[in-house]
Design brief:
homodimer, 356 residues, 13 helices
Chain lengths: 356, 356
């Protein structure tokens, strides 16, 4: 276990964006999180500082007693000792939630070296376990998290009810305590004007649709996160199976939309891709939204084989690097650090220059 | 004298865009036209076909009897024998007016080889002489046209009144029959939000402001044509002197606006230039307006020394080549000729690729 600073994380790109997973032309990443609490310990919202620290210690002991999270290479973050900027970095890398970083006292975050799994301690629940992988592979992600959950439970006595299942702070998580999600890149359905109907249809299946940065950000960069809403009365494998089959359908729909666009309106697609590249490669002021939109445009070009000269793995790093906190962190010492849009454009220009 | 087809013109770029004139970073071109009519011949609007043909013959004889218009290399166009598309080419190259090409019967156009001077026969007036040069050099253009006018008058008996001056079809041209204009590129004043006040001020001086393609097109590509409105009661040299001094002021204002922008908001200027380049270099569908706007953005970059690698002379050709008629003419036989926006983008991409 390493008492880490975020600089440790910044050395390497996040692994879930490395486009090495199944269906990675459409599915960016698959993620599962489990909510867990300990018997005889209050939920964090009702706990005093001493109780919160007890929970931290108990879970730290359990995390340190398994190799499932990277063993001696596991990174430990104590948000109360971190700057606000560094905590925002955790958020942008999807290792911690907004709620977690906003009230940092007596909380802990454990991260395995490749950032593929992490534990938040004393968020809404005492323990939130997360695993994430590139592409569309929910079952593999379920195996990952199941293993970690089993390992931790050897040293943790979870609050569990035979009738209800796992007990959680918020009733919407009681039961499995599980939320599984897949991040999809759906520019074809957006360009074809079909995304509205698609999202409506997903809603009827009791699944939630969110944007890349949680609720209220749907559609940024044509990225959509589809997740289960039910946790009660169904088994984990049933939930994953249902989500899996909906995602499979969406991927087919997106593929069809892309094919149709290319057949019917090839130049509009090319234009979308070309303008996206032009903006990333040549602008000197880029808002976050514009950058996401352009990265999406570039991705569809690469994914549809229209832009073979670009290594998309490297471009994906930009999805993280253009975030405000990552920019502020990396701009320190730069002459342009007073204007994030200017620095964001410089980061994108330089990256695409290297790749061209 | 050569009975020419427009293909003859398309072999070379128009000379007034070659950026070799004074103040060519702001003044694109200087132009003067004179309206003339012959004694004892009716104005074209009141003439029958025989009379129109008589006028054509008389002026053709005069044009052929001087070397002022290129002598044996002078190009002669009979618009009634040309396709509508070819006539539009004359309009886009600013050799003929909309009115002239729309009613082509019994009209003639004479053009000297470098397109720097031309004669329209039987437009609104029987004779419209035009000379044009790159940059800001009204006095030189006045010398050019004065010489041609003198030469032609050796064989033409102009309708002239000792009190009024030259008689013209429309009362607004009576007197000198002269309209002098300078085409200015004023992106600095536009970006600084000062162009509205500037245009208002110019109006108070009895000068007219138009866009690159005549009335109603002001602001396309940040190009503004400033011309005199008065023709009666003032000498040609007085009119030119007044226009000259206003243009001189405008050029100073534009230079000041550009300098201020660069000092106060360097990255916004760079961004404007970069995005313009990116669009021209990478898009696959470009409207005429977008292309003009982007060419303007690229020019300001070159003119302000932000983009030294581009040969602006070559870029200027695009101002003509992206016109709908030039595109349709050049797209003949191309696979993309069904969509002008697609072909326009291809023309711009290829030109900038060559120059990069």
């Amino acid at each position: 276990m390493i008492n880490a600073a975020v600089d440790e994380l910044l050395k390497n790109p996040v692994s879930f964006l490395d486009d090495s997973g199944p269906d990675d032309d459409i599915a960016i990443s698959s993620r599962i999180r489990l909510a867990r609490n300990l018997k005889d310990h209050p939920f964090p919202v009702a706990a005093n500082n001493e109780e919160l620290n007890n929970i931290c210690e108990t879970i730290t002991f359990a995390a340190g007693n398994t190799d499932a999270l990277g063993g001696e290479n596991m990174l430990l973050f104590a948000p109360e000792n971190m700057s606000e900027l560094d905590r925002e970095i955790l958020l942008e890398r999807r290792l911690a939630s907004r709620e977690f970083i906003n009230t940092p006292e007596a909380r802990r975050l454990f991260v395995c070296p490749d950032e593929g799994c992490s534990l938040m301690v004393n968020e809404e629940d005492q323990l939130r376990i997360q695993t994430i992988r590139p592409g569309f592979q929910l079952r593999k992600v379920w195996q990952d998290i199941n293993y970690i959950d089993d390992e931790l439970s050897k040293n943790l006595d979870y609050a569990f009810d035979d009738q209800l299942g796992y007990l959680t702070c918020c009733p919407t998580n009681v039961g499995t305590g599980m939320r599984a999600s897949v991040m999809l890149h759906l520019p074809g359905l957006v360009l074809a004007g079909q995304i509205g109907a698609t999202i409506q249809g997903i809603g009827k299946l009791h699944l939630a649709v969110r944007g890349i940065f949680g609720e209220g950000t749907a559609n940024s960069g044509n990225l959509f996160q589809i997740s289960n809403q039910n946790t009660l009365g169904e088994s984990e494998s049933k939930i994953i199976e249902e989500l899996d089959s909906v995602i499979r359908q969406l991927i087919l729909q997106e593929k069809h939309a892309r094919r149709t666009l290319l057949e019917n309106d090839r130049f509009s697609v090319l234009d979308h891709v070309g303008r996206s590249y032009g903006l990333l490669r040549h602008s000197y002021k880029l808002t976050f939204e514009e950058a996401l939109h352009s990265l999406s445009g570039l991705r569809i070009g690469v994914d549809m084989g229209l832009f073979n000269t670009i290594d998309i793995h490297k471009v994906n790093e930009l999805f993280i690097d253009i975030g405000p906190a990552h920019l502020r962190k990396n701009a320190a010492g730069s002459e342009n650090n007073d204007d994030l849009d200017v620095f964001r454009a410089a980061v994108c220009r330089e990256k695409l220059r290297q790749l061209s």
